[in-house]
């Protein structure tokens, strides 16, 4: 019993001593300012961004590749840090394909770095300076950091494949390039293009027989009694996707024009009305531009979701 008490006292003493040293010492590189050494560094804004080394792997061509992500400790602050002194990979950089926009939270496996054949035991360092806080991490090819992004050695599990065109390349595993680029212009029916591509990818991925089987047998099973109901549900789903795209775009455009019309009608009440019409109209014009950007982002995300759903088996 006496031994346990002495051990407990010794542990407490060491803990107090460690806390005193940590509190008295200078903040190390990569640490956020804190009144206590164990205070969490995650906050809404003003915190740091930490590079994250996921590991390295052998590519299908036998090359060595580093897989890298990051952790933005700000919950409500996304950061744009251009390649340079505050976002650099050395030696050989500063630009090695690292991101310059940092979303909030932990972002896994964001990019890869293909290493030269003579890399050997060399090391790279990725340094990020965000909100005045510096974080750096070492990138290497040590044996205990090997990862398997293409196939799990234990259970032979493979990652899902993703295509953005019916006859396009299948992408799977770690990111290493830009998969596809889409451009939408006024008057171009992107919704119908995505809809046709979704059906085409579904048929190519599952075969015509498999696609028709899902059309009549999902989601309520393959009992012939349920075929009409399954078919009705799937037709409604297929029709609603381009229809929702079209109605969303038309609604936003029409509403924006109506508001412009109402604002300019203020000019009919005289000088004061004209003044407010100009001021409010300018403000709404700026806001309308932001809405256009938001709609483009929504269309992009819906396209990704629909294309991904085309690969799913029911």
Summarize the structure.
The chain is an alpha+beta fold. It is 41% helix and 16% strand. The protein is built from 4 helices and 8 strands.
Q: Would you spell out the secondary-structure blueprint of this structure?
A:
Elements: H1 2-24, E1 49-58, E2 64-72, E3 79-80, E4 87-90, E5 101-102, E6 105-114, E7 124-130, E8 133-139, H2 190-217, H3 227-265, H4 271-310
Antiparallel strand pairs: 1-2, 2-6, 3-5, 4-7, 7-8
Task: Summarize the structure in words.
This protein has 314 residues and is α+β, with helices and mostly antiparallel strands. It has helices spanning 2-24, 190-217, 227-265, 271-310, and strands spanning 49-58, 64-72, 79-80, 87-90, 101-102, 105-114, 124-130, 133-139. The strands form 3 sheets. The chain has a 3-stranded antiparallel sheet, with no helix packed on it. It has a 3-stranded antiparallel sheet with strand order 4-7-8, with no helix packed on it. The radius of gyration is 28 Å and the shape is flat.
Number of strand segments: 8
Distance between the termini: 63 Å
Strand content: 15-25%
Q: Can you tell me the number of structural domains?
A: 3
Helix content: 40-55%
What does the overall shape look like? flat
The total of helices stands at: 4
The chain-level mean pLDDT equals: 76
Outline the biggest β-sheet.
3 strands, antiparallel
Our Rg estimate from Cα atoms comes to 28 Å
* Order of strands, widest sheet: 1-2-6
Pick out the low-confidence regions. 1-39
Structural class: alpha+beta
